[in-house]
Amino acid sequence: xxxxxxxxxxxxxxxxxxxxxxxxxxxxxxxxxxxxxxxxxxxxxxxxxxxxxxxxxxxxxxxxxxxxxx
Length: 70
What we know:
By secondary structure, the protein is an alpha+beta fold. It has two helices and four strands.
């Protein structure tokens, strides 16, 4: 039983986008590894941008800099 955990920032992924991620991850495991889609589990975790860091900064701060905010 494959288990896939997708982590994304909480920045407005739609229900449709999440469904596409679940479908795509499942199809990939079926195609590449021959896994049974009925036993393939996919979860999506949405993290607040304060709880995700890159390059020593939270994504919240990175987004502010990208927008030119202080």
